[in-house]
Design goal:
6-stranded mixed beta sheet, alpha/beta, binds flavin-adenine dinucleotide, Elongation Factor Tu (Ef-tu), domain 3, Rossmann fold, binds FE2/S2 (inorganic) cluster, 5 helices
Length: 288
Amino acid sequence: MTATANSDSMAATPPAPFAAAENVCTVVSNHPVNARYNHLVLAAPPTALTARPGQFFHLLCEGVPGDPAFLRRPMSVYRLRPADGADGASGIVEFLYKVVGAGTRAMARLEPGGSFNILGPLGQGFHLDPGWRHVVIVARGVGLATLAPLADMCRRAGVGIGAILSAQSPELIMAEDVMEAVGAEVVRVTDTEGTSTVANVERLVRGRIAEGRADALFTCGSNRLLMLLQKIARQEGIPGQVALEQQMACGLGMCVCCVRQVRRGGQTLDLRVCREGPVFELEEPVSW
Ligand SMILES: Cc1cc2nc3c(=O)[nH]c(=O)nc-3n(C[C@H](O)[C@H](O)[C@H](O)COP(=O)(O)OP(=O)(O)OC[C@H]3O[C@@H](n4cnc5c(N)ncnc54)[C@H](O)[C@@H]3O)c2cc1C
Ligand code: FES
């Protein structure tokens, strides 16, 4: 049976409420980190600093004449630092982004001292079960940005992390320093080295399971890896979560343009990635 969740009451489990605000931030820095990704650092007001790992902001990327960007663009929080009362510094919100179109091209033009309007935090973030001692994180592409704050959340909860970071080539691996700084055991796999194949990632994940170091599996950034982790989780009876990406308009649950089919409560539901997600239980999304 398929049902469309065009209101909170139609989802099998109503999504948790979240407090969102329009935050006017000041650009601290905005640099390329490699040939494909940029790193944006913003001084942000307290209303932005409540973001949880896996939540996102809807960014007002104002284009330029001849290259307009209608609608905001969704982006996961990469890092968040609270305000330092001692030296009066503002809180910091960071994004890692890939320049793909008009919106992200406009972001790449932001300069230090300029302002940037970010709406959020939005959506449902990751959660950790108090019984978990070790988790496995499998990330690719922009998923590396989304899963970095989860690693910090694990560290604070005393949970060990095995991180498999996948990219097209070694120089496109990101967030490795962030993962290692929180004590994650990192394995890099890449297309150019022939190590990012589904078969090799499966071998690595099953290795952690055999060692008893995989109480939960987390992923973002690749449908191929999502399907692999769903298969392993089903066979081994291991829980997990996935952060999904979908093109968005409102980002607030009103326009229903971001729906994705998920299995929940014995039904197949069309749920909004911006409202019921972007984080879902690993077994829920119907792959496409
Ligand atoms: C919850 C969420 C978190 C995200 N986090 C990040 C992040 O941390 N870093 C990052 O670089 N990107 C992230 N994205 C993807 C980002 O939103 C898109 O790359 C961005 O909106 C593209 O805007 P644009 O105007 O530059 O490109 P457009 O001109 O709008 O599109 C250019 C190309 O990108 C594709 N695209 C557009 N929007 C999306 C989308 N939402 N998801 C996937 N592909 C898209 C289009 O199909 C097209 O091929 C996230 C998306 C979601 C939904
Ligand atoms: S983007 Fe409008 S409902 Fe999700």
